[in-house]
Every structure is written in structure tokens, then in C-alpha cells.
Amino acid sequence: MPDTFLPAPLLTALQDLLGPSGILTETSDTQSYCTDWRMLYQGKCAAVLRPATTEACAKAVALCVQYGVPMVPQGGNTSMVGGATPDTSGKAVVISTTRMNRIIAIDHADLTMTVEAGVTLKAAQDAALKEGLMLPLSISSEGSADIGGVLATNAGGNNTVRYGNARELALGLEAVLPDGSVLNVMRKLRKDNTGYALRQLLIGSEGTLGIITTAVIQLQPQPRSRETALCAVQNTQAALDLFATFRKQDPAAIQAFEYMSGTSMALVNSLIENCALPLSEPAPAYVLVELASPRADDSLRTLMEETLGTAFENGLVSDAVLAESETQRQALWMIREEHAEAQKRAGASVKNDVSVPLATIPDFIERATAACENLIPGIRVAPFGHIGDGNIHFNLVQPEGADAAAFLAQDHAMMDTVAGIVRELGGSFSAEHGVGQLKTYMMPSWRGGAELDSMRKIKAALDPKNLMNPGKIFPDAE
């Protein structure tokens, strides 16, 4: 017998609709879909539905609605806030988009890609590269995260400083709404002022308003020249001043500008293979800067060297290494991308994905570090992230040798401590990871009143039975 609580008629209908490879009911098969990447949430589900087309997805959703079964949309299952994990009741089904994995078209005239939701971000990037183009969105989990999840969470990443978040890159999309109807706004238009921008309502909704199945994504010409450097700096203010120095020279050349604390870098160097520090000695903080241009003869090396030369003279940079090949460039980026994995290997961690105005970043990191060290002596404060757009992953790693469960039991105290400082500085408690189920308790105080009330009304209008990803974004009703 299958391990499911689904009514027999519904199970039969879903099996007939999706076929033998389109539905999983045995616990051994569904377990991996019920645990998040950080292993903070271990839920249960009645089944995992794996439709291969938008039509099949829509019919599956309609059947679930008919029987009152909650649905949890899931892509690559890389959420940092439990946004794609079912609860422990076992009543919900997970609807996975991984079988909807076709790259439908690449249009050179419009510079767009039409792609299904289950295509991984890395596969989409590679497809664009083969055509001499670039999909500029880049995140650490791009090998697993898929297009649907990237859009549903409005992912940001390393190149936001130049190209914007997922929201800025999506021109059109198709989605299955909570009643099983299909919303098709698959337009390639940069200008379309005909009422509400419904695609923007779905982007960033974390699967609470529907399941994105197909999208039109903007592409860019592939850079033909690129310069990358890892720089040692004395503090966060120096990192921010270095960003200002590059921006004054040529803001259009900056493709990425990433900050890494000394503590976080040390974890990468010690816990990740082939990630030794390529500088003469450790520093309090680091910056990874990348310049790029579609022009092959662009003088980016001169720009990089002259700007860093000025930074050395002004005391902003104490050491730097420039990539001399694509292999060296990838090695520098590997050091940056492995920060989350290194912190995971170092023990339990609490992740604060926050954003503040750029000018306040040094003040934020200094104040939040002192507050957390005062709260938990021995805590390893390991911030890193996208300093060029104001998004810092202010992560906190358990003291060495501490009990992981006892550390995580204080997660709300740590998150609230950091969030309090963020609020004073006019920032946001979630810059790019979303709310999920981890941060729902913050919504009333941060987004209460008319803002949260409007969100609830939109949710109720599209999903009156609250069957689409329940328990995410919204706190429990009083």
C-alpha cells in the first residue's frame, strides 16, 4: 500500500493523469522533498506530484482543490527559509516542477529566453552561453535552483548591482493559479501598460499565489572582456569606499562587488577543498570585484589596475590578486560561492539575509556584531554578501564545541537582535531569501497595517481556501 492519506478516488485520478513517474507516494521516495536545504524543517506529505506540462499541472491543481488538499510548490528545494517544505501533518502534496525542464526558445533579436520552470538556473545560463549570450542572474545554488523557484522568490545574487533581481529580468510568465486555471502573460514586451502587471504579483510570492510553469527571461550579450580581483581591506568602511572608487571611475563596468568578512573567509579556507587564501596573509575583510564589457578591446585591465592603484595609495586596499585566466577567475569565484557551505560544515548557523542603505552598512555590521557577541559569547559572526546593492548575509555560526540544538534554540533572539538594528537603519529583514515559514512572525511588526492587510486580501481573492503553500509568508491569523 502507498504511504499516503489521499482519498482513494483522488489518488487514482492523479495516477491516471500523471502516469507512474509523475506521482510518488512511498515515504522513501518523498522524504527528500520534505526536508529543506538547511535541514531546519522536516515535514511530511501525502504525495509528490511531478507534472511534465502546464496542462497536467493545472489539472492536478484542480483535482487537489476539489478534494481540499493543500499544495506546496517546489522547484530545486534550495530555500533558505523553509519556503518549499510541507508541514508535519502529512496532508499536503508537494508539486514539483522538475519534469518541466525544456528550454523552448532563445531569441537573438529580442535577447530573450523562453524556458520552463524546472530548468535549473545553471542549465539556462549554459544554454545562453552556447548562443553567445548571458543570463545575468547568478546565485550560489544555481546548479540546483530552478527558474520557477528563482522567480517565485525574486532571487537576487551576485550581479544584482548591474542587472537587477529576477523581477527585473522577467518579461512574461505562465502560471497555474490556485483554482487550477492558467494565467498566460507570456509576452516579450519591454513596454506593456495595459492594467495590472500580474506577472509581478506572482514574482516574489513564494508559491502562495500560484505555480510558475514557464517564463520569458531577458538575456544580455556575453561579456567579451572581464577582469576579476580579490582585494584585502581593513574593514567594511574601506570595502564601501572601494566600491565608491570604482563607481566614480566607471559605474557601467561593475558587474559584481562582493564583501566577505575575515571570519567567514577563514571558514572557507579551512573547511573547503581547493579554497586556500590566494593572498600573502589573512585580512580583516575582503572584496571580490568583477568588471565586464561586451567589447573585446575594452581597457578593463587598465581600469582595474589604475583604480586599485589609487585604492592602495589611499589605504583602502592592503593586498590584491588579479585573475590572469578564466581558470583563476573561477577559482576566485569559488572562494566566494562556498561561504554558505563552509558555514554549514562549521556547525549550526543562523542566517540573517538583510538589506540596509549602502551608507549604513559599516555601522550595521559593527553594531550587529557587538550585539550578537554580547548575546552569545564565543559566537562566530561571519557576514558576507552583495555589498554593492546593500544586501548582507549577516550569518551567525555557533561557538566552537557548542551544542548545536541549544544554539538554534536561540535563533529568534539572534534574528530579532539583528533585525532591530536593521529596522533602525531603514532596512529590510529579508533582502532576497524571502519570508517562507522561518520569518512569518516578523511580518506583523514590519509589514502590518494596510500593507499586510492588502497582501491578505490578494491571497484570499486568488486562494480563498488557502490551499496554495499555506503557512508561508503570512503569520497565523489571530
UniProtKB/TrEMBL annotation:
Domain (FAD-binding PCMH-type): residue spans on this chain: 41-222
Listed GO MF terms: catalytic activity; FAD binding
This protein's record includes keyword Flavoprotein: yes
Domain of life: Bacteria
Record has Flavoprotein as a keyword: yes
Cofactor names: FAD
BP-aspect Gene Ontology terms: respiratory electron transport chain
Keyword annotations: FAD, Flavoprotein
Family: Belongs to the FAD-binding oxidoreductase/transferase type 4 family.
Protein name: D-2-hydroxyacid dehydrogenase
